[in-house]
Here is the input.
Amino acid sequence: MIDLQKLLATLVYDPKDPVLFNSAFFFYYFAVFLFCYLAVAGSKTGRVWVFTLFSLYFFYKACGYYVGLVMLSAIVDFNLSRWIFKAQQRSLRVFLLVFSIVINIGLLFYFKYTDFFIGIINDVTAGHIQPLHLLLPIGISFYTFENLSYTIDVYRKEFPPVDNFMDYLFFLSFFPKLMMGPIVRAADFIPQISKPYTLNSEDIGKGMYLIISGLFKKIIISDFIYLNFVQYIFDDPSKHTGLECLLGVYGYALVIYCDFSGYSDMAIGIARWTGFKIPPNFETPYQSANITEFWRRWHISLSSWLRDYLYIPLGGNRKGKVRQYVNLALTMLIGGFWHGASWNFIFWGGLHGVALGVDKIRIDYLKRTGKTFNGFSKHLFKVLGILLTFHFVCFCWIFFKASTFHDAWALVHQIVYDFQPAIWFDLYQGYTTVFALMLLGFILHFVSAAGGQHTMERAMAKVPVWGNVAIMVAFIWLLIQVKTTQPMIPIYFQF
Amino acid sequence: MPANNRSAHPFIIIAGTMVCLLALSFVHSSFSLNGFTFRQVDMLADVKMDEKPHPTPKQVLAAKKTADSSQATGPSSIPEPDHHSYDYMTYTGIQEYQDTVTTAPGMQHFLNALQDLKTGKRKKVRIAYFGDSMIEGDLITSDLRDSLQTQFGGAGVGFVPVTSVVASFRTTILHTFSKNWTDYHFRNNPPQNLALGLSGHTFLPAAESWARYAPVHRHGLDRFDEVYVFYGPANGGNVIINGKPYTLSGDAPVNELALRQDTTQQSVMLKYEGGAPMPFYGLSFESSNGIYVDNFSFRGISGIELAKLGKGMLQQMQQQHPYDLVVLHYGANVLFRPELTDYSWYERPMQRVIDSLRHTWPQTSFLIVGTADKAYKKTDRYITAPGVAALLKVQHELAEQHGTAYWNLFAAMGGEGSMTHWVEGDTTFANKDYTHFNSKGAARVGALLYKAIMDEYKQEVHP
Here is the structure.
């Protein structure tokens, strides 16, 4: 009944089948890993080796022999940071730091951006340089930034470099954060390696809650809405009415949040179960009342990285107003480009950079005049702020998601000139489940407060272990039902 | 280990869940409740041996097709027509059928017309290309037109309606219009005495209704030369076209105002100035000779709707603006349930449509384009919908019965599984609905059809 060849095939790298936390493969992998990890729980060296070997295998399974890149960059940065630490002369320290930055950014550029620049050169010079069509090594954007923050921190003498290479490789390859982050700082992570592997009921409850809510966000909300509605709209916006396009954009706002934060939640939950605390990466970002607040609550590990290693070194707010705006715009442009090699991402980053600059003016104005709002007007401004921020972010998502500028403007065009609200009832009938889930997603997002989450976590912490098994089985059974439903066929409305 | 250390719990939870789910995979856990079927849990789906049912004849056919089309992966590699096999499911060229009713069986009339055009015996050849959302925005037809005009001459997009839902995305003409036209069409019950135009639309103006057309910067489409305005019965309706007033009259179902574009003007602005109320159909942009492909797209229809076109209008149209080939390209909206395989409900009314069209335009060649591949998600993969083969059978029968030509787009695309390939391949040729082509895919289909037509033409010229 079991096909041995197929079994072996699932164990090797398959470019068509990336490892996802919501795959059956990961489930088996995680069980075997936990078993081995538990067996060596008493020894720090044992834990580091088991975890690192499993993580490297995970890398291999996800991106084949690119696993070598992680090991190579670990070797380079481990040694460079030690030399930086030991070097007495300032010039040597600077040289080593620049060398490390060039190597890391160079590697990232080579794999991620070469074709983009070849395209630009071809466009400008009407040349015909062959693009490389490189496969992007999974996680490279994340571990490059982790390497950089580590060497820069050592250079800034914020902490001494690690003595043990295996500890550094462990930090860099830590599988829960491999695919989609969060970007973890060595300073937060490395001290946790030596702590004994013990978990209390709070760890169990928190991990359980994060894994389940992450799966819920990813599969029940994000994947379902995307597959059954949002992808049709973004595929060819001109074929859909403005109302559909607008709902498609709202849907995408939820899809990207649930997909990304769901994945982060799972990563943080899995890390928690293995004895590592990683700070949250998202804090209900669409509740933000202004764009500055949004960036404190959206992809926190990236925005704080950009702040600490790009915005502040550029001069931050210390070199006058004009420089501050330039720094903000530059940081966001680069942040946009980090998401992918296309003008769309750069434009998306630029829009956010400009908005952050405008918001700075507002904040400075309020500070200067000492204006505050109270009572009703305070609440009104907050609600208006949330609505405005959410819609601005949604507008930017159009450019983030659309495959070309042409498509993005086509979508905007449909919303502005071809709204056709009269079809709402047909639309509702065609996509009832999708809209119900979207509504549920937004309600959960906007009413969710820290209180509700803590109650759930505490409840899961109190449940005996067999109870958690029952919860997990029931939940995964539900996921299977949602995952295997036949996708809805898109509707093209006549008028 | 401290007494309250729960570091074993994650393992117990994950391993326990795994054991339970594995147990569920072995028992029959699928059941129905309130019409919703809960699916079987199968944790071993990835590693189980494939169950091999006996291949059905259709699967054998499908396997053959995949082998035939395995080289058809790049846009440049258009498959050679398989002249050895005339199986309607696999043949990638045009098949022609004879009939006794009309004087224009198969493609014969059209191919003669092409030859006459080439040798200068006639000035114009026209194709009426009817379809659904697959061709809207001039998809497929613009590429076919471009290739044919390069080969046989002619410049201009041909027919354009007064208003259109996809006007802003049609890249072959710039088309804008006022919002106050009333559009009667196949789907909204026009008044009894109002005839529909060939596009399936008739437009009634209100005060100061206007429509504006401008050429685009593309080869053959960058200027207007001959402009025709088609309108219904009128008794002195006033229009202003590029500043010049005209009074439109005529009692035929279709009347035509022929204009020559003033060389100082780039665009055409048509404005209704009152007078007797009158219906408009659209404009046609042509040059003095060559071949024209008119795009008659209507979103969401199956082809049955063509029955609503009046005989009088069709006959009049053929006198004023004769078509040498009619292409009927439908199927996407017939396959609305992928697993449906009985299309007799479609065959009967479509028989009447084709029969009536053939009798009304007896001199014209007809080409039925068999449906494109359409995939749907079955368990975890996108596969060709079982309805595709069933619909192709019906469409082929329609061609055979009425002595028209037949071109199997499904086979030309690469047969079984080709839509999945077109969506998921390195270059994307179709949308995520696994039904519609994007502009790249449409261009590829246009090229495939052009090649199929030219293969027939070459056989005709040098048999």
Q: What stands out?
A: The mean pLDDT of chain A is 90.
